[in-house]
Specification:
Blueprint lengths: L4 H14 L3 H22 L3 H24 L5 H28 L4 H23 L8 E3 L3 H18 L10 H18 L4 E3 L12 H16 L1 H32 L8 H8 L2
Antiparallel strand pairs: 1-2
Helix pairs in contact: 2-3, 2-4, 3-4, 3-6, 4-5, 4-6, 5-7, 6-9, 8-9
Length: 276
Amino acid sequence: MSTTPERLRSIHERRVRRGFYILPNLLTTGGLLAGMYSLVRCLHDDYVAAAVAIIAANVFDVLDGRVARVTKTTSEFGSQYDSLADLVAFGVAPAILFYRFALEPWGSLGWLAAALYVICGALRLARFNVQRDEVAKRNFVGLPIPAAAEVIAASVLLYFYLFATAPTMADDPVRRSGWLITCYLLAILMVSGFRYFSFKEFELRHRQPFSVLMAVIVLLIVFLAEPQFFLFVGSVGYAASGPIRSLAGRASRGGRRDDGAGSLTGTSDSSSFRAS
C-alpha cells in the first residue's frame, strides 16, 4: 500500500499535536523577550540597556541551537520559531535602536535606512531557511542577522563608553553619517553572497589542542578587562571577514591562473556564492 500525501500530512499533524521540545524553545523565548525589552528601553531613550538586551538575545540564540543539537531536540517548529524570534530581536530591535539613537535627525532617509535593515534581515532569514540543507555547515551565505545586530549593539556600547556625557548623536553630523552608511552596509552584507564562518564544527565537548584552550583564556581575559572594545572589535571584524575572504580567495585564484594552473581549485568558494 503506497503512502499518499494526505497520509503523510496526517502523520505530521499528529506528531505536532503530540508536543514540543521545551528547553530549546524556552531559550528561543528568552531571546524574543530580550528583543522586546530592547524595544521598550529604546522608547525610554535608555540605549545602553537596549544594546545589552540585544547582546543577551544573541546569547540565547547561540544556546538554543547548541542545546537542540546536543540533546537531539531539533525540529521544524523550533527552526521556524527561532527565525521569527530572530526577526524581532535582531531585526526590529536593532533597527529601532539605530533610528532612535542616530538616524532620527535624517528624517525620511533615516527611517528608510532602518526599514531596509529590517527587510534585508527578513530576507536573510528566509533565504537561510530554504537553503539550510544546501549550504555547507561550516559557512553561512551572507552576514547572519545576529552578527549584524551585534555590530549595532557593540557600537552603541562603545560610543557611550568613550563619550559618556553625550546622550545622543543629534549634534554630531559626522558620526551620524557614519552610522547611516553602516546601516546600509549591514543591510547589503546580510543579503550578499559573502561566506562567513558558522563555527558549528567547533564543539567544546570534543578534545581540542592546548593552543585553543590558551586562546579562549586570553579572549576571556580581554573581554573581562575591556568588554566594550572586545565586542566592537569582534563584531566588526566578523562582519568584515566575509568581504576579506572573498577578496583573498579571488587573489589566490588569480595567482594560480597566472602560474598557468589552468583550473580553479577553489570550487567550494564558487558553489557557496551560487547559493545567494
